[in-house]
Amino acid sequence: MAQARAEELRRLLNRAAHAYYVLDAPEMEDPVYDRLYRELVALEEADPELIGPDSPTRRVGGAPAEGFTSVAHRVPLLSLDNAFSPDDLDVWYGRLLKVLDREAQEGSQAPALPMVGELKIDGNALALSYEQGVLVRAATRGDGERGEEITANVRTIRSVPLRLALASPPAWVEVRGEAFIPEATFTAINAERAERGEAPFANPRNACAGTLRQLDPKVVAARGLSFFAYTLHLPDDWLAGPRSQWQALDWLKAAGFCVNPHCALCPDLAAVKAFCDRWEQERRGLPYATDGVVVKLDDLRLQEEAGFTQKAPRWAIALKYAAEEAPSRLLRLTCQVGRTGVVTPVAEFEPVPLAGTSVSRATLHNADRLAELDLCAGDTIVVRKAGEIIPEVVRVLKELRPEGAARLELPATCPECGSVLVREEGEAATRCVNNGCPAILRGSLRHWVSKGALDIKGLGAKRIEQLVENRLVHSIADLYQLNAALLASMEGMGTKSASNLVAALETSKQQPWYRQLYGLGIHHVGEVNAKALASRYRSVTDLRSALDETPEILHEIPGIGERTIQSLINWFSTRANEDLVKSLQQETGNLLSENAQFALSDDTNQLHGQRPTALANKSFVLTGTLPTLKRADAQALIEAAGGRVISSVSNKTDYVVAGEKAGSKLTKAKNLGIQVLDEHELKTLLNET
Ligand SMILES: NC(=O)c1ccc[n+]([C@@H]2O[C@H](COP(=O)([O-])OP(=O)(O)OC[C@H]3O[C@@H](n4cnc5c(N)ncnc54)[C@H](O)[C@@H]3O)[C@@H](O)[C@H]2O)c1
Ligand SMILES: [Zn+2]
């Protein structure tokens, strides 16, 4: 089992390394490579018999590409060991102290060794050879021992000095550093390539590698490469040489190199960690890509003492930033039914750390995406979680697919209620259209009690599930029929929490009506739209009559467009929703309308203080041009007296104020027998109150 897996991993990693180092066309994301690599390292550590001569853990980089002369490096260019967390740094540091024989003595702390923190620029390592102060050769890292000679290309990089700025340079100097392409240049290069119909580079590092291997130096010159120097090698007998990495960086600067300005000399490991933390954030503001921080022991004598492992120095480590992508093994495919009935396939897999958390489930979006991924049972998948984004499955590593694995598809029936799932033409979503589906019910209950809606404490997902399962609740309205005795009989619910919950439900009725509207979970009616609608219509009844009579009037409300209006109409014309509204209104008293405190929003309450009540609940419609009052002024006066101005006439309208050129609204008012006022009559009415 372990042997087969190790072989599989070796094959996969070697192929990926070839694509990455030699072809400049990576097959997988770096974090994916890193994780598979670590899996192989773990297998090899557990059983050294598994280490094959072709294992990527024994090798640096890739073979020199054809088309260039291969040259031997005077000093080999190694790789770096990776750390992926502060804990890994501790382990590395502890090991280093041990190798240097400086472990903590009993009763005293471990000694602090100064270290240099450098940004890990995501480019390509270059080896520059100077003789008598003149650049004579530049080469890629290659396999660490031999690289490709690319001197002509490197000469075009402005930040690589062709002659060192030193009066009397050593006989030879070897400088290592990173060639890279700034992000902006990278974007421009890809835009150009797209215009010419060429495939874009995957990332700046690849663009840089591809450029360095151009056969025509003129093309390289046009690509705008830069170079940061970070390592210096001098002849052993050169006495004026630096004694620390920090001094080496100064030496490089004095010799005319560009050294990354964000290096820091850290007195101890705590300072190193602070440096890493800081750049994990600030790197996003840099004009070039970085993929971590390189930590190096400062003292060169100690570096020598610590030495090297197979392929990397013991005195340095690269801390890679939290991966946003990683591979994992698929355990099963499940389906989630949302409150709108949409069925989302979900991949459940072996937990992996991603962007700082452990992730074991990721969305597969919909049936199309599932088909596109071509997912089979037991597949190794690549999962992504970037920042706040919900984890998703980005790819399947088909090379690792078990033989004869079965293809995975969405089920034909709802996993919750068993009814046949429906996918309408032109729609990406597959839905359960059974209104009684417990999943839909649970979803709408969860939404109703959520923070932005009725904000009912004590009704978490588990409790809701319990209520639905025990058939105590069949709709949102049923929540308000629950009594403490019944609740207290439920598993895990005491008398105290039962009465608290009943009290919380009771107070929730006082929530502003826009929250209730939002809580209904109507498509396109989020918090903002709910607020806008609720500030125009005082209750669900007002809103409904506007929708029935003059839906186009809703366009006047900021943010409300055709989509929202259509969705509202659809929602209200569904039988089950109609029933829900009815029971919420009847059985619970004042739900779904503005309540006594005019609690539209906290701000308006503060603004108006106690509203006058004389014209409270009286609704006015303004139409036509009044002789002296502007429309806004008339509205202000009405509102100051406690009334409110709505835009459409219905049999609920109390007064219509009509001026010159009044149109259909006046006709409608007359037909409905609503009292019509002119400006004078309006003023009289306002003065009376
Ligand atoms: N995507 C793939 O398929 C694939 C394949 C192979 C390798 N890789 C990537 O390459 C990594 C391993 O490659 P590696 O051996 O080049 O090691 P590395 O990239 O982990 O570290 C060594 C390299 O870091 C660079 N570097 C940047 N700043 C530096 C600084 N201040 N000091 C020293 N070095 C600095 C140098 O180019 C150096 O060669 C893997 O972790 C993986 O992410 C990816
Ligand atoms: Zn269902």
What do you see in this structure?
- The structure is a single chain.
- The protein is α+β, with helices and mostly antiparallel strands and 689 residues long.
- The chain folds into five domains: 2-59, Orthogonal Bundle (Helix Hairpins); 82-320, D-amino Acid Aminotransferase, Chain A, domain 1 (2-Layer Sandwich); 322-434, Nucleic acid-binding proteins (OB fold (Dihydrolipoamide Acetyltransferase, E2P), Beta Barrel), CATH 2.40.50; 438-508, DNA polymerase, domain 1, CATH 1.10.150; 611-689, 3-Layer(aba) Sandwich (Rossmann fold).
- 36% of the residues lie in helices and 18% in strands.
- The strands form five sheets. Strands 12, 13, 14, 15, 16 and 17 form a six-stranded antiparallel β-sheet that branches.
- Helix 1 runs antiparallel to helix 2 and helix 12 packs across helix 13 (461-469).
- The longest helix has 21 residues, at 2-22.
- It starts with a helix and ends with a helix.
- Mean pLDDT is 89; it is low at 596-611.
- The structure holds nicotinamide-adenine-dinucleotide (NAD) and zinc ion (ZN).
- The site of nicotinamide-adenine-dinucleotide has 23 residues, from helix 1, helix 2 and strand 3.
- One of its GO terms (molecular function) is DNA ligase (NAD+) activity.
- Zn(2+) binds at residues 414, 417, 437.
- This is DNA ligase.
- Residues 610-689 form the BRCT domain.
- Keywords: DNA damage, DNA repair, DNA replication, Ligase, Magnesium, Manganese, Metal-binding, NAD, Zinc.
